[in-house]
């Protein structure tokens, strides 16, 4: 789990550090006793111009706070303004993708605060991720709405729990369990069950789902069957593991993240005096992404709000993609039933995407079914026309990755920043082949969901040296020749690895440089917005951004799962691996599960501002049987109708878009290889790892261990020269295949999967020399 820091909880405690996590808990089995421990848009949509409205998702990097309440409303479109001025009674905002929902609700809070209607300390804005909460805090600060709390459900609940626990139960709050997997594994062992890594992950997810859906251990088998869940083990076994896991937590006086909400609800239900204290502190609530609320989060929200109705919720049923964790859009769709006097506002003006992208997204939802589809929003693009989305079909997954990487390289060469490009996939396991393909063409990338920007070691070091230089002022010799803030920052960060030119390749060295370069760009933008700022002002700004988790942009193509991409946007998006069995995933069997997979694709499509490519591969590996089908969700969306692909490109690089199929410029047809067979037993191979080795994993190998060790040492030297991870030279499986076959010439080396033409040209001579037992010149003596 990621370690996140939360600032003080208003009147309920001091600053604390807690781990971050998304699922939520349940309360019925916990007692409060001290523990022993569509339609296409108009051909030429005209952006709404009255009042100088600006794009909903664009804002100045360092805006000046509005000088009056009315100034807060400037630039909002009519529907956004209606949201911002609806400050009394329940409000439900149905906001489509890219329509400026965060803009609307933050301006609503700021307008209420600046007009004196909403006391800032009485407002609690709730988001679902630390990033979203941090963005809200940053926007509110820029609008002059200081003192408003913007938090996740978990962070708000934890502060209340920490503050009230001694009064409600006595003693200190039990320690928070940061990682539950080890305790789940121990519970399984005590049940005399052995879980492999995947089963452990899945059983842990089932426990989390049970708690957020208010399911006690003994009821798990029946509840899982009713929900149509695919249990990783026999449901009765999972229920036993769940029960023993809870017992182990009680014995060790620890709580998990699901228990944070569980216990907060229990305290508020059990102690009316504490509930009234909380309601006295917070009287106005705003909930973002309301379609993702779980039953327990809804229960906690109702306890916070009490009998009052000062509640504003924002959501889009078509973006409900977390039902597997217990989330449900029913709370959003039933809001008007629960609050008959609610003001309902629909935001459908899409400021993010071109009419072509919006048309595709609308078309996808016209095929949807179920309750969420009945309430879908028809988006209307407010942007100028752009290129048609491209549909690309490839022979195999490596070919798809290579073709995507080449197109990305060409986009960057044409002027699109790498940070404005994303490759999105269904599951994280798909990322590796794209990391490799991008490294092969020299394009840096960053994995979404990896380490937070402000927690990176190089960023922490940069903070230290910048703060030191700010304190030294004119006494720091580094700053003697620096005439302005950007040059001061460049001089200081130059001591930590920043340079005007980026290092070649990718990997750790490039990642470090990119982090420092992001700080340099931030300083440049800061100085441009406020010419008189000092280094001390920048340090203060960085501290504020770190607290809000408002990271600067890092140059590098983003690789992310569709779930991790929620709430983000890029100029160019590549949706890859779009085959039946991957999207929708094979285990999505019920109508509800299939529709959630469709909504996930909708989320992916609506991440793109202008350029969108959707691709799939007919086979998993080179030479494999081309038996895959494009995702059923693409049917009817491709130009030319449902059959537009017409198998028009079993060759790598076949693409369709605009008026029909065409081939990606610069790509070549791949010669169809014969199916790969094991060189030992002759069986057909489909697993990529076995294809690389040209043998079954279980078949005996004739490994030259000395050669294998020499290849490893050589690879490490090459990777160090390039500043890239070792696998960017050759993967372990490729080295193993070389050491087993010991090729004697280029033709034999080229037959090894993983040794493509570029690698053969770059490394072939060295590898063949090593295979022949020759000594290579020392790395530092070779030309680079």
Automatic annotation (TrEMBL):
Catalytic activity reported: Couples ATP hydrolysis with the unwinding of duplex DNA by translocating in the 3'-5' direction; ATP + H2O = ADP + phosphate + H(+)
Keywords associated with the record: ATP-binding, DNA damage, DNA repair, DNA-binding, Helicase, Hydrolase, Isomerase, Nucleotide-binding
Superkingdom field: Bacteria
EC number: 5.6.2.4
GO biological process, one term: recombinational repair
Enzyme class: isomerase
UvrD-like helicase ATP-binding domain: residues covered: 74-354
Protein name, per record: ATP-dependent DNA helicase UvrD2
Source organism per UniProt: Streptomyces diacarni
């Amino acid at each position: 789990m990621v370690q996140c820091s939360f600032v003080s909880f208003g009147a309920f405690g001091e600053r604390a550090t807690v781990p971050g996590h998304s699922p939520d808990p349940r309360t019925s089995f916990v007692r409060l006793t001290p523990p022993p421990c569509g339609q296409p848009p108009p051909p030429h949509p005209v952006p709404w111009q009255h009042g100088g409205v600006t794009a909903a998702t664009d804002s100045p990097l360092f805006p000046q706070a509005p000088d009056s309440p009315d100034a807060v409303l400037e630039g909002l479109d009519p529907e956004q303004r209606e949201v911002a001025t609806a400050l009394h009674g329940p409000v439900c905002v149905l906001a489509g993708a890219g329509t400026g929902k965060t803009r609307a609700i933050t301006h609503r809070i700021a307008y209420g605060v600046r007009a004196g209607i909403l006391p800032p300390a009485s407002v609690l804005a709730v988001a679902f991720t630390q990033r979203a909460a941090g963005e809200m805090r940053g926007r509110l600060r820029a609008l002059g709405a200081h003192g408003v709390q913007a938090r996740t459900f978990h962070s708000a609940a934890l502060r209340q729990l920490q503050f009230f626990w001694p009064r409600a139960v006595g003693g200190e709050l039990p320690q928070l369990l940061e990682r539950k997997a080890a305790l789940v594994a121990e519970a399984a062992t005590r049940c005399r069950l052995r879980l492999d890594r995947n089963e452990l992950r899945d059983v842990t997810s089932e426990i989390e789902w049970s708690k957020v859906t208010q399911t006690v251990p003994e009821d798990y088998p029946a509840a899982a069957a009713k929900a149509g869940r695919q249990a990783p083990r026999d449901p009765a076994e999972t229920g036993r593991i769940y029960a023993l896991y809870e017992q182990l937590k009680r014995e060790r006086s620890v709580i998990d993240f699901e228990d944070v909400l569980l216990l907060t609800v229990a305290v508020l239900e059990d102690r009316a005096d504490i509930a009234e204290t909380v309601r006295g502190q917070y009287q106005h609530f705003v909930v973002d992404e309301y379609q993702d609320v779980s039953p327990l989060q809804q229960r906690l929200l109702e306890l916070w709000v009490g009998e009052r109705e000062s509640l504003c919720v924002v959501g889009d049923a078509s973006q409900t993609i977390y039902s597997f964790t217990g989330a449900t859009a029913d709370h959003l769709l039933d809001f008007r039933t629960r609050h008959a006097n609610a003001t309902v506002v629909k935001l459908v003006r899409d400021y993010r995407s071109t009419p072509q992208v919006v048309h595709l997204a609308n078309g996808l939802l016209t095929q949807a079914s179920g309750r969420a589809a009945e309430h879908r929003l028809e988006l209307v693009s407010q942007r100028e026309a752009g290129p048609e989305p491209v549909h690309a079909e490839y022979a195999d997954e490596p070919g798809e990755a290579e073709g995507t990487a080449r197109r990305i390289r060409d986009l960057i060469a044409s002027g699109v920043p790498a940070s404005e490009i994303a490759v999105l996939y269904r599951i994280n396991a798909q990322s590796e082949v794209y990391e490799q393909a991008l490294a092969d063409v020299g394009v840096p990338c960053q994995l979404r969901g990896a380490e937070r920007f402000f927690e990176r070691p190089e960023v922490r070091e940069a903070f230290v040296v910048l703060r030191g230089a700010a304190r030294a002022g004119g006494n720091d010799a580094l700053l003697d020749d620096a005439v302005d803030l950007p040059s001061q920052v460049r001089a200081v960060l130059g001591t930590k690895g920043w340079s005007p030119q980026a290092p070649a390749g990718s990997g750790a060295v490039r990642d470090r440089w990119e982090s420092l370069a992001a700080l340099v760009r931030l300083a440049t933008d800061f100085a441009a917005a406020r010419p008189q700022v000092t280094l001390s002002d920048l340090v203060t700004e960085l501290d504020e951004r770190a607290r809000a988790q408002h990271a600067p942009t890092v140059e590098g193509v983003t690789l992310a799962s569709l779930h991790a991409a929620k709430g983000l946007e890029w100029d160019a998006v590549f949706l890859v691996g779009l085959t039946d069995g991957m999207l929708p995933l094979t285990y999505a069997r019920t109508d509800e599960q299939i529709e959630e997979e469709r909504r996930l694709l909708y989320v992916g499509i609506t991440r793109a501002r202008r350029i969108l490519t959707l691709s799939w591969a007919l086979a998993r590996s080179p030479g494999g049987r081309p038996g895959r089908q494009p995702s059923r969700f693409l049917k009817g969306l491709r130009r030319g109708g449902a059959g537009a692909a017409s198998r028009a490109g079993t060759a790598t690089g076949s693409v369709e878009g605009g008026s029909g199929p065409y081939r990606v410029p610069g790509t070549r047809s791949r010669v169809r290889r014969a199916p790969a067979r094991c060189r030992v037993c002759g069986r057909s191979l489909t697993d990529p790892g076995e294809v690389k080795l040209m043998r079954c994993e279980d078949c005996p190998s004739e490994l030259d261990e000395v050669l294998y060790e020499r290849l490893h040492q050589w690879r490490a030297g090459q990777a160090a020269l390039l500043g890239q991870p070792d696998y960017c030279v050759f993967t372990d499986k490729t080295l193993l295949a070389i050491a087993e076959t010991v090729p004697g010439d280029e033709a034999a080396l080229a037959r090894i999967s993983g040794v493509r033409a570029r690698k053969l040209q770059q490394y072939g001579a060295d590898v063949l020399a090593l295979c022949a037992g020759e000594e290579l010149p020392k790395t530092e003596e070779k030309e680079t």
